[in-house]
Amino acid sequence: MAIAHHLLLCATPTKALCGDPALGAASWERLKALVRSLGLEDPDRPAGVVLRTKADCLRVCQGGPVLLVWPEGILYGGVTPERIERIVHEHVIGGRPVEEWIIRRTPFAVPLGGQKSSDPASA
Ligand code: FES
Fold it and tell me: Ligand 1 atom closest to Cα of 16?
C-alpha cells in the first residue's frame, strides 16, 4: 500500500494553545468525512492512500488550528472546515498547495528518495 499524503491536525490540543478547540473539532470531523467520501483511504487507490492523524500539538502553537501535510512538510494555519475542503481538493488531490494559507514549510533534511548534495557518500 503506497501512501500519498499524511495529514496531521492539531484539532483539540490538550493545552488549547493555538486555536479554538470547537473549530479544531469541526475541522477534524470535516477532514474525516471528506477523506472517507472521496475514497482517499482506499488501499487500492492508484495515487496512494491518504492518512490522517489528530495530533495534540505540531509545535507551531499560534494561528491555529494547524494542519501539517506530508510529504511536502507544508503547514496551514487558521484551519476551518471550509479550508479543509479546499486544501483536500486543491493540494491533496490536485497537487497544488493553497499558497495563501501556508504559514510555514518544513521539508525533510534529506529529500525523499535522495541524499543531501553535501553528503560525501553521494559524490
Ligand atoms: S497546539 Fe496547535 S501547534 Fe501546538
Answer: 1
